Amino acid sequence: MATKTGLKGKVAIVTASTAGIGFAIAKRLAQDGAHVVISSRKKQKVDAAVQELKAEGLNVSGIVCHVGKAEDRKKLIEQTVKEQGGLDIFVSNAAVNPTMGPILETTESVWDKIFDTNLKANFFLIKDAAEQIEKRGGGSIIQVSSIGGFIGDEFLGAYAVSKTAMIGLTKALVPQLASMNIRINTICPGVIKTRFSEALWKSPMAEEMEKTTIPMGRFGVSEDCAGAVSFFVSDDASYITGENMVIAGGVKSRL
Ligand SMILES: NC(=O)c1ccc[n+]([C@@H]2O[C@H](COP(=O)([O-])OP(=O)(O)OC[C@H]3O[C@@H](n4cnc5c(N)ncnc54)[C@H](OP(=O)(O)O)[C@@H]3O)[C@@H](O)[C@H]2O)c1
């Protein structure tokens, strides 16, 4: 797609952005004109993603960050501000789902890992990012939750509950962030064809599932999510905050 200039001069961080949904969001925000900081756990993947986007003429840099590590989170925000002069947009995309299965089979260590990454790390990153975004006079924060957070799910178990908590967090953060001139919105994707969800879209029942459970008749692709984020962080969404937007091809959702 053609490069737009709506985010020219803005600095954005996207966590977990070397593959899948995060990569598509990072690419789109860079195409919209922002400088985008790419990050994930593995340096090799960060370097490869940066190289790929730079080769397309996009304005990106990379910082390794395992969101589960407090020192990495601190470094991600501090280094971005030091190197790019500030922060305007923060996209919290990293999450884990170590097991699939009935929720009552969740062990304590799995529960802790899910909530430490998907909720605690997400919250403290947002807190630190907001402090920096306020210094620039305001900006935008995006969380990546899931339709699983709306509907719960027998097989997504504790992961889905952590995603429900993120939906609540969107609402809880609105008043304080609004007073800092920061908008926060959350996207809640359905099944998007990435490595993370391979077990669903590569399963023998996948074709049947697409036809019978998704009104639009197809699984999503990462770009379906990137477009929504591009809108939410743009001035076109200047009066929109606290929303949890489902991107799921018409699958019904209600808390
Ligand atoms: N795909 C779906 O169907 C779907 C549906 C609803 C919601 N979501 C949500 O969308 C988000 C992205 O998922 P995806 O489907 O795009 O996954 P993906 O394609 O598997 O990509 C995962 C990315 O996360 C990075 N990563 C993994 N653990 C990390 C950590 N602890 N800290 C920092 N980076 C980490 C990976 O790089 P490294 O290996 O280098 O760390 C990679 O860049 C997640 O929040 C997920 O819950 C996905």
TrEMBL record:
SUPFAM superfamilies reported in the protein's UniProt record: NAD(P)-binding Rossmann-fold domains
Pfam families reported for this sequence: adh_short_C2 (PF13561)
Record's signal peptide: none
Gene Ontology terms for molecular function: carbonyl reductase (NADPH) activity
Xref: InterPro entries: NAD(P)-bd_dom_sf, SDR_fam
Family to which the UniProt record says this protein belongs: Belongs to the short-chain dehydrogenases/reductases (SDR) family.
Name of this chain's protein: Uncharacterized protein
Protein source organism: Owenia fusiformis
